[in-house]
Amino acid sequence: MPVTIKDIARQLGISYATVSRALNNKYGVDPQTRQQVLETAQSLHYRRNDLARGLVKQRTATIGLIVPDITNPFYPEVARGVEEAAHEAGYSVFLCNTAWEQERELLYVRLLAEKRVEGLIIAPTAQTAETIETLLTGQIPVIYVSDTQNNLHSSFIAIDNVRGGYLATEHLIQKGYYPIAYLGALEDSLTNEERCTGYIQALKQYNFSEEPLLYIGSYHSQTAYQIMCERIAESNVPRAVFAVNDLFALGAMQAVREHGLRIPQDVAIVGFDDIPLASFPEIQLTTVAQPKREMGQLAFAMLQQRMTSPTSPPQRTLLEPHLVIRKSS
Amino acid sequence: MPVTIKDIARQLGISYATVSRALNNKYGVDPQTRQQVLETAQSLHYRRNDLARGLVKQRTATIGLIVPDITNPFYPEVARGVEEAAHEAGYSVFLCNTAWEQERELLYVRLLAEKRVEGLIIAPTAQTAETIETLLTGQIPVIYVSDTQNNLHSSFIAIDNVRGGYLATEHLIQKGYYPIAYLGALEDSLTNEERCTGYIQALKQYNFSEEPLLYIGSYHSQTAYQIMCERIAESNVPRAVFAVNDLFALGAMQAVREHGLRIPQDVAIVGFDDIPLASFPEIQLTTVAQPKREMGQLAFAMLQQRMTSPTSPPQRTLLEPHLVIRKSS
DNA sequence: AATTATATTGTAAACGTTTACGAAAAACAA
DNA sequence: TTGTTTTTCGTAAACGTTTACAATATAATT
Fold first, then answer.
1. pLDDT top residue among B185 and A265
2. How many domains are there within chain A?
């Protein structure tokens, strides 16, 4: 029912090939007919059908971006980075949210592949690269962001999570806090694992022989809060906690403060990500910063590189983390 | 280059129509051939081309969602709502960020129309419905979310912003705070205008004859902070401020606290939206709550209704706002 | 005026599906 | 057996573009 290129052609009594040429202002069409085409296109409210166009051109100028949780301020930030760079380069982006469900992540990969996106940027929920790669069989280039995927043949851009975890923990150690707990999430998230590894490394490095204190829950917004509440209830509160991300840190903060304990006098807290709120006056969360927006931009740049020359070797960028010390520690 | 339905047909020595039927498990294909088709599809890593499919079926099972700022925690929340509902109904969603630029909003509308999305949900940056409607000429149903667009023939779901502004201001008045400033953004945002109207109405209602105190800046993340800093610098601080949204309120809070003033003893603050952080212990922001997730879900439900019966009259839902009183006032 | 070069247009195939319609084959009934 | 119904499959058109190639019209050259 919508108006097509043929309607314009019919109205003007010319062939639709000419209309197509005029619309894409190609070389070799009379300026006058072009003008006419443009005008009647306007008056008929013509809107090009990108499905048809994509089909013949074998291009969609579209990429997919898959994130685990758009509600975590970290991701919108990198999303904006990606989106800006993509837009700059004439691409539009499909943004998908997996809600930390692996199954959904794979579903979206399939879906986006079927929509013929030209590239994919994924902030994975878990170690799922293997599955994704076999799913795509190299048809569509992928960049993993904020996760190394431990995978030798995939491209990624991420921060050195192990080092970040190490820095955070070292800082707490040097401040003299003890014991230090690690507040994290499901083990199948590589990010979580790595940060935890950094934590353990630091403990080892500074000769703490005791077992590391691992508080592990699901990646739900309330988990950190609940876990800390439980610990407080059983008056089993660690002197400091290093949280896998700022949202967890804030959850812990909330629990601690609601129970009348003070930060950092009673409990010190450090997070990871440096979301905008971390610097807020009454929060002042010490945290490991990530250049979120830039990571997004870079991810797109890397993807573009792989889209234009798919045979080039995978690129792997590991950024150096940077500890921002504030009042919470 | 990617494998098509014909490759499967060729390999099995059958026609590609049969392959199509098998793949879409339609009635009337031998179970055995179907099995074979499925198997070779798998082994060849076949992936259906949704461009071609959409072209012939005249359906894409895709909608567009346009928001002004994915970085403002309000929007991810409604985005999740629509995404969930859409996913439930078998639709995928294109999420686009306009960065509060009207031009970009229109660009995305065009782009999405060209991609043949079946519906559009827009959280508009301004009073742009008129333009959008003429752009789309009724080809694609649109639901405006969180903004009434003042427009008699468009569908929307929003909160009663005037009433919300009124409630917030009334609350501050009844607490005895005076003077009360309104901290808002560009005037071409209807949301902003309406909340401001509510503010003024409340002042009138309670017989404040003075001019309303309007602090207006751009929709940038730092504006609220800067405006308040200036006021403080010139020691011209209002007793209370009602901010157009929680992000602005937080910016004001930050400025106030950084200058050693206390909330609410020196300056009372109320916001709008009730983003997750508003309830945080050391923030405790009084605010006008919006059912964000639900608004998203409802928006999709409304859209679906309009997609299935495009001739039905536009739907207009105005939700009742609800004041959440916390310690900031 | 005839010839050649150039600018403009039309024809038709292609992109990868779905699907109406008819043909063939298989199953059933007589 | 033959006829009839049912199941399975193939042919071809359609979706709305782009584009190589051929055809025509126009302009330039001699």
1. A265
2. 3
